[in-house]
Write a structure and sequence with these properties.
This protein is mainly alpha-helical and 113 residues long. It is built from eight helices and no strands.
Length: 113
């Protein structure tokens, strides 16, 4: 499932960027990148369905125990939580880069140079 999602994202990014690469679309690509990262955070938060699972992963990603418990019990919706500082601190862009998720902006800049 995770690998399939990664493959579909990779194909979509390559397709979009290669189709529109002649246009100057750096600002659009940046906005798409931000939306994609937020969506990935939302999917990850949704996959951590139970409070115990969220608590475990937040602790593992470097949040202290008290804050991790507080954040794991948040009652906001998935999309709202994905835009919060909670997931921005734990599921960083660097983490996604290390997991080898492709970025619209990085791929666009590599194609344009």
């Amino acid at each position: 499932m995770k690998e399939e999602r990664k493959k579909r994202l990779h194909d979509t990014v390559q397709g979009w960027v290669n189709y529109y690469k002649l246009a100057d679309m750096k600002s659009l690509v940046t906005k798409l990148d931000q939306w994609t990262r937020r969506r990935m955070r939302m999917v990850t938060w949704k996959r951590w369905k139970r409070i115990r699972t969220r608590f475990y992963w937040l602790k593992k990603l470097g949040i202290d125990k008290r804050k991790a418990w507080e954040w794991a019990n948040i009652r906001k919706g998935y999309w709202r939580t994905s835009g919060s500082h909670i997931l921005a601190r734990t599921l960083t862009n660097e983490l996604f880069r290390r997991a080898r998720y492709i970025s619209f902006l990085d791929y666009y800049l590599s194609v344009r140079s």
